[in-house]
């Protein structure tokens, strides 16, 4: 009985989409004093097929954060749950370079129906005194810029199939003549030497035997030499 070989293969694929949004607050000093839990928000931006925005609380969210600014990423799309990672940054307006203040690099679940639609889960984003230090560069010409990078898992799929035995073998390109030519030129693995007109040529017995019945008889047959390591060709 001949047994048939087969192999089953499955592959789980996860794809993501990245996006960045910059939220510029012009007239920062006029926003201060609007009160705890009061906020301004960015325009809606889309990443991975979902709508998002940035919330900024100049006087903090909650009494415990009244000396801080609070910043949140919010999922706006209704009736959905999505896995995403994010990075909330403040831009140094003197250099133009953003600095990460809070990030989650592991994709976590955002659910539009509960508080998990907001990130992060705490209100003390940055102390207001640190934000307003001239050396920080975060406030310039009464402007503040918040950046948010979002990476959304957009697709997860599973595929499986049966692979035939011959499909498991990766067949090399058909350049065997070039390979034999390189063996002859480099002499790698040579096990016999021909002397022709005083010139020595390294060769491979098994290749010669496969190509010529005369060489096969001389190298492997009854007429083979005891060592068959050196063959002198006369009359050439």
Automatic annotation (TrEMBL):
Q: Which GO terms describe its biological process?
A: protein ubiquitination
Give start and end of each MATH domain: 18-150
From what superkingdom does this record's organism come? Answer: Eukaryota
Residues in BTB domain copies:
190-236
- Under which pathway is this protein filed? Protein modification; protein ubiquitination
Write the protein's name. Os08g0226000 protein
- Organism from which the protein derives: Oryza sativa subsp. japonica
Record lineage = Eukaryota, Viridiplantae, Streptophyta, Embryophyta, Tracheophyta
């Amino acid at each position: 009985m001949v047994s048939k070989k087969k192999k089953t293969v499955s592959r789980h694929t996860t794809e993501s989409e990245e996006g960045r949004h910059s939220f510029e607050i012009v007239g920062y000093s006029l926003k201060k004093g609007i009160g705890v839990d009061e906020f301004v928000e960015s325009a809606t931006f889309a990443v991975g097929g979902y709508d998002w925005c940035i919330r900024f609380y100049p006087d903090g969210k909650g009494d415990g954060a009244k000396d801080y600014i609070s910043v949140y990423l919010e999922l706006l799309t209704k009736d959905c749950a999505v896995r995403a990672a994010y990075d909330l940054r403040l831009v140094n307006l003197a250099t133009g370079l953003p600095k990460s203040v809070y990030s989650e690099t592991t994709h976590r679940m955002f659910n539009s129906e509960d508080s998990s639609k907001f990130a992060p889960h705490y209100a003390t984003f940055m102390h207001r005194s640190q934000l307003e230090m001239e050396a920080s560069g975060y406030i310039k010409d009464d402007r503040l810029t918040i950046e948010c990078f979002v990476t959304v898992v957009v697709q997860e799929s599973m595929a499986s199939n049966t692979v035939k035995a011959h499909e498991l073998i990766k067949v090399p390109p058909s350049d065997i003549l070039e390979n034999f030519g390189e063996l002859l030129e480099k002499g790698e693995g040579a096990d016999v030497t021909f002397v022709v007109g005083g010139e020595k040529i390294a060769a491979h017995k098994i290749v010669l035997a496969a190509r010529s019945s005369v060489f096969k008889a001389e190298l492997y047959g009854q007429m083979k030499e005891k060592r068959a390591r050196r063959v002198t060709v006369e009359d050439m």
